[in-house]
């Protein structure tokens, strides 16, 4: 059981308050989906939650321990982070790239002990990459590569998994497969948070939705409580139609609202 918490988190990037006082609790067993308009601060929040950015104010704790004070190895074993649009620099076989997820455990990718081999095999199976093991990771499509990088994060078997837009490059079938994997990770007791832009998919899989806007948590809670037509107008600047079909919440964006001066990006530093 791992609880990742942000307490009054403020992060400045360049001349912007990317985060301006975020309080957030990510609990084990739950899939939290972070949504919000472009520039709202979602990636900044996730990178700070992963201990990769030092906040100007406030702190992030994992089970009460500040993440920026954890040793790098301990943090990498505890928090798996999948960045947005990750790339693979070297033409390593897919299985070797995924095996890199075992490095935080001191396991060498070319000499994995049985538990490392099991973790890699389970990750390959989870994202449907059987048959790709020996392909050079640089010779894959964008969606295939995205699944390799997710598998690398899964192979770490960290109790906390943070994924920045893990399904953005995927076809509809693989979006569902990957979100099922992430949901199952949460059901198995992990603490899982993902960033997504597809609000209908977010509503379908999220236990909790956190809506970020202008560096602040504008709303959080169950999908039907957060993804309301009024909330979407206020926070995304869109007129949307929210309905329920076959038990699923469906969000259709109809048109952008002409809100004068509507800016969703982080406010400039005074
Ligand atoms: N390196 C940087 N230097 C200065 N400002 C930055 C930097 N990176 C991001 N920002 C600004 O910080 C704010 C938050 O950016 P962030 O990437 O966290 O947004 P986001 O919600 O993830 O957006 P998107 O949906 O477009 O991915 C934005 O206003 C952005 O312009």
Automatic annotation (TrEMBL):
It comes from Microvirga guangxiensis. Part of the ABC transporter complex HmuTUV involved in hemin import. Responsible for energy coupling to the transport system. It comes from the Bacteria. This is Iron complex transport system ATP-binding protein. SUPFAM superfamilies: P-loop containing nucleoside triphosphate hydrolases (SSF52540). Belongs to the ABC transporter superfamily. Pfam families: ABC_tran (PF00005). GO terms for molecular function: ATP binding; ATP hydrolysis activity. InterPro entries: AAA+_ATPase (IPR003593), ABC_transporter-like_ATP-bd (IPR003439), ABC_transporter-like_CS (IPR017871), P-loop_NTPase (IPR027417). PANTHER family: HEMIN IMPORT ATP-BINDING PROTEIN HMUV. PROSITE patterns: ABC_TRANSPORTER_1, ABC_TRANSPORTER_2. Keywords: ATP-binding, Nucleotide-binding, Translocase, Transport. The lineage of its organism: Bacteria, Pseudomonadati, Pseudomonadota, Alphaproteobacteria, Hyphomicrobiales.
């Amino acid at each position: 059981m791992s609880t990742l918490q942000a307490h009054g988190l403020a992060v400045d990037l360049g001349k912007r308050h990317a985060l301006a006082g975020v309080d957030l609790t990510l609990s084990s067993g739950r899939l939290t989906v972070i949504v919000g308009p472009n520039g709202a601060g979602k990636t900044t929040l996730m990178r700070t939650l992963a201990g990769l950015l030092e906040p100007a104010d406030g702190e992030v704790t994992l089970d009460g321990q500040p993440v920026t004070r954890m040793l790098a190895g301990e943090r990498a074993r505890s928090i798996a982070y999948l960045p947005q649009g990750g790339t693979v620099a070297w033409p390593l076989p897919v299985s070797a790239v995924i095996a890199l997820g075992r490095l935080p455990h001191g396991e060498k990718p070319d000499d994995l002990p049985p538990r490392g081999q099991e973790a890699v095999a389970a990750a390959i199976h989870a994202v449907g990459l059987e048959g790709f093991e020996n392909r050079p990771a640089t010779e894959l499509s964008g969606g295939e590569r995205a699944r390799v990088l997710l598998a690398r994060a899964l192979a770490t078997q960290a109790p906390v998994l943070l994924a920045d837009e893990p399904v953005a490059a995927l076809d509809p079938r693989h979006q569902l497969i990957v979100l099922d994997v992430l949901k199952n990770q949460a059901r198995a007791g992990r603490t899982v948070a993902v960033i997504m832009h597809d609000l209908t998919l977010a509503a379908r899989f999220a236990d909790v939705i956190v809506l970020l806007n202008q560096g602040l948590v504008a709303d959080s809670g169950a999908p039907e409580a957060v993804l309301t037509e009024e909330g979407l107008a206020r926070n995304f600047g869109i007129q949307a139609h929210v309905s329920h079909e076959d038990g699923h919440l469906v969000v259709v964006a109809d048109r952008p609202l002409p809100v004068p001066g509507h800016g969703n990006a982080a406010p400039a530093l005074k």
